Amino acid sequence: MTGIPRTLYKEEVYVAYRRQALNNLPGDLFLILQLPDKAEKVHGVEITVNHRDSYESAIKYLSPKRLQWIPISDNIGVKDDITGYAKWKRCLDHIEQAEKENGFQYDFIVRTRPDIFIAKDLPTEDLLPHDRVLINPYYECLLDDIPPGYTKKWSDHQSPCDNKNYGLSDFFTILPRKFANIFLNISYIPDLPRHICGSRSSHPECGVRAILFKYNITFELWPFVVKIMRPTQFCHNRVWNHFNSWC
């Protein structure tokens, strides 16, 4: 779990992480968190920054194996980490250290962000394939209701979204461990083939599609129900994405 925690202090957010995620996919939690030193602008909306103490209850409840707070000025060796992807690699560093200390390797890694509300139970490990990366769909690209369970998958974007002009969602992924050294290093791999995203080649999410394309890694869109839990100030913005966010 990496990023600015924002609404992680909300009980419904961190309790859902335990009930819908960790209870279904038991494992170790690694937290790489970062707090701005002043109010931040999110899609043009000024968001108040909570004090670190606001997250004590959430962190205690989730009981992470590793926790690191990174100064907002630390780009972790990347010139501009506006996407926050460099923190994925830092999280991988902690995972590798834990594996070395304990003499084993994890089977899967769930990549998520701290302000995600998980509304649907994650699949159990026996349902997870070992040969592909699983990503939540862009909900605005679906014309049908998300089905129960995990029997339905989508190989790419659905109409009305054009798969030649989109990246892939970057806020929730389940990946087999063997793909982690590529996928979680996205900020440090040069010359990603962003042209595959067409008109959206400059969008951050294009990097997700591009890195999977470059290394010929298969992905599937699975019917996860994960939404960004937005701060109240953000929800007064009339143009916020009602498909991927809740308030």
List strands and helices in order, with pairings:
Blueprint: E1 2-3, H1 11-22, E2 30-35, E3 40-42, E4 45-47, H2 56-62, E5 66-71, H3 86-102, E6 108-112, E7 116-118, E8 133-135, E9 172-176, H4 180-183, H5 206-214, E10 219-221, E11 226-229, E12 245-246
Parallel strand pairs: 1-2, 2-5, 8-10, 11-12
Antiparallel strand pairs: 3-4, 6-9, 7-11, 8-9
Can you offer a commentary on this structure?
The two termini are 20 Å apart. The chain has 247 residues and is an alpha/beta fold. The strands form four sheets. A four-stranded mixed β-sheet has the order 6-9-8-10, with no helix packed on it. It has a three-stranded parallel β-sheet with strand order 1-2-5, with helices on one face. 20% of the residues lie in helices and 18% in strands. Helix 1 packs parallel to helix 2.
Please provide a brief summary of the model.
The protein has 247 residues and is α/β, with parallel strands linked by helices. It contains five helices and twelve strands. Helix 1 (11-22) runs parallel beside helix 2.
Please name the defining characteristics of this protein.
four-stranded mixed beta sheet, alpha/beta, globular, 18% strand, three-stranded parallel beta sheet, 247 residues
